[in-house]
Specification:
Blueprint lengths: L1 H21 L3 H23 L20 H31 L5 H8 L2
Helix pairs in contact: 1-2, 2-3
Length: 114
């Protein structure tokens, strides 16, 4: 089951990457970056998932294997940073759309080329 799930996660990353390459609309590029970021986070979650570990709440009477909280904190940080980067990119697209009535990359490049 893990191999199939990893294949779906890699397919999600690939779809996001191909969306960045092939789409010409800036909003679609931002959404494709979000899909790729979600796939990368999902890959870390799938690779770190293990059975038989418990929540890292220390109880003296319970001597079991605890889950490491550091990867969880790193993933939460990655989610927050990804959200802020996506918001910043969307603000950039909004600023760019004030000067160019289109969001097509080819048209913007043609208007700004010497």
């Amino acid at each position: 089951m893990g191999v199939i799930l990893e294949a779906w996660v890699f397919a999600t990353i690939l779809c996001g990457f191909l969306g960045i390459l092939w789409k010409q609309n800036l909003i679609m590029k931002v959404l494709a970056m979000d899909v790729m970021s979600t796939g990368v986070i999902a890959y870390y979650v799938v690779s770190a998932a293990r059975g038989g570990v418990f929540t890292p709440i220390f109880l003296p009477q319970r001597q079991v294997a605890y889950a490491d909280p550091v990867p969880q904190a790193v993933i939460l940080t990655a989610i927050v940073i990804g959200l802020s980067i996506q918001a910043l990119m969307l603000v950039g697209v909004m600023k760019l759309s004030r000067y160019h009535p289109t969001l097509d990359v080819r048209d913007i490049e043609m208007k700004n080329s010497p």
